[in-house]
Design a protein that fits this description.
- With 360 residues, this protein is of the alpha+beta class.
- The chain contains eight helices and 19 strands.
- The strands form six sheets. Strands 1, 3, 4, 6 and 12 form a five-stranded antiparallel β-sheet that branches. Strands 2, 5, 7, 8 and 9 form a five-stranded antiparallel β-sheet that branches. The chain has a three-stranded antiparallel β-sheet with strand order 13-16-17.
- A hairpin with a 7-residue loop joins strand 7 and strand 8.
- The longest helix is centred in the last third of the chain and has 17 residues, at 236-252.
- The chain is globular.
- The protein starts with 21 loop residues before the first helix and ends with a strand.
Length: 360
């Protein structure tokens, strides 16, 4: 286990590895243009409207909302109401071709209403600009809790055909209707507007969809806008750094109760929105305990020069990303297999003006 020293309140956690490695420094330097272009893109596409646009819940059944994501030849981030759902970029995307999978979105929705989906698309790993290829397909659906056999496709997001994000001028429209009612239409291609990606370093696409859930949570919706606050005070990075120092210490010292305490509010939202009972909550806590007590893993040191402060939730949430690999900065490395790394991500809010930052 590495020995930890605190050099100052802002020059972070130094272990036996007293300085950031040359390899990491070179990768940070290599990514400077990426972070610059990403910041420009995000600022350019900012809007005044925040989502969700809430409506009273009209359902009482336990409904799970999800998005099936299928990508090819691109890196990407998918956000729901400006909160990260899924990230597929950096070395994790190397030699993968693409990503596919079903992702539950209830924990990011908070309430019924109109929601925003945002996709930031990047060229495949190792390329600076888009060529002619690359594609993504998003299919929105919902189903009764724990029952994937009764899937209903969201008609506000093009039903089972989903939304195709690529440079093609047509997409495949699934068959629909019923022979018996005379409404059947066989599958066919329909025209669409191609994304003009070729030659660009990145691209942001956004749209809205309607979805219903049997809950109405506040979450971070009424929290302070940290992005605006930081534009005035310029002090958020230092404050956030201290919060990450605290997380680092808790994990390094295997303080289980403290760890479960600082993530309590986040876990309450996960539990309520995914309909966990006592058994599921206990199993989830046990997974955290098992990870923190596993001596095969050690927490990696954090260096201030590697930190990129990233805002989500329309400025009400903040986190750190690593400038070198674009992943979270709290990471546990397997001492027997250094290529095996577990990333622990945290989002912070400030509930009240001049209040403390807290994990949500």
């Amino acid at each position: 286990m590495k020995t930890l020293f605190l050099i100052s309140t802002i020059t972070l956690l130094i272990s036996c590895q007293k300085t950031i490695s040359q390899e990491t420094t070179e990768q940070i330097k290599k990514n400077e243009t990426f972070w610059k272009n990403r910041n420009i893109m995000i600022t350019k596409n900012e809007i005044d409207r925040e989502y969700p646009i809430k409506k009273d819940a009209v359902i009482s059944d336990k409904r799970s909302n999800a998005i099936y994501i299928h990508s090819s030849g691109v890196q990407f981030e998918v956000l729901i109401d400006d909160v990260l759902l899924y990230n597929f970029k950096g070395e994790a995307s190397m030699h993968q071709g693409g990503a596919m999978g079903l992702h539950e979105i209830n924990p990011l929705m908070l309430s019924s209403g109109i929601h925003e989906v945002k996709v930031r698309i990047y060229p495949e790993y190792g390329k600076k600009v888009f060529g002619e290829g690359g594609s993504m397909l998003l299919t929105f659906q919902y189903y009764p809790y724990n029952n994937l056999k009764e899937v209903t496709y969201n008609l506000s997001a093009n039903g089972s055909s989903g939304i195709s994000l690529d440079q093609e001028s047509e997409y495949w429209k699934d068959e629909e209707g019923d022979y018996r009612l005379g409404t059947y239409i066989k599958g066919h291609y329909e025209p669409k507007e191609p994304l003009k990606l070729k030659g660009l370093p990145m691209y942001e696409w956004r749209s809205t969809f309607e979805a219903e859930v049997p809950f109405d949570l506040i979450g971070w919706r009424n929290s302070i806008n940290l992005k605006k606050e930081n534009q005035e005070t310029k002090s958020l990075q230092k404050e956030l750094l201290l919060e990450y120092k605290n997380i680092y210490e808790i994990i390094k010292n295997k303080e289980i109760d403290k760890f479960l305490g600082i993530i309590k509010e986040r876990e309450a939202i996960v539990s309520q929105t995914l309909y966990y009972g006592t058994k599921e909550n206990k199993l989830r806590d046990e997974e955290f305990v098992k990870l923190l007590q596993n001596n095969d893993y050690e927490i990696e040191p954090i260096f201030e020069e590697s930190l990129h402060m990233d805002f989500q939730g329309y400025g009400k949430l903040v986190t750190f990303l690593h400038k070198a690999d674009k992943e979270g900065v709290i990471r546990l490395k397997n001492k027997k297999n250094p290529d095996e790394v577990i990333y622990l991500d945290f989002l912070f809010q400030r509930k009240l003006k001049n209040g403390k930052l807290s994990i949500i």
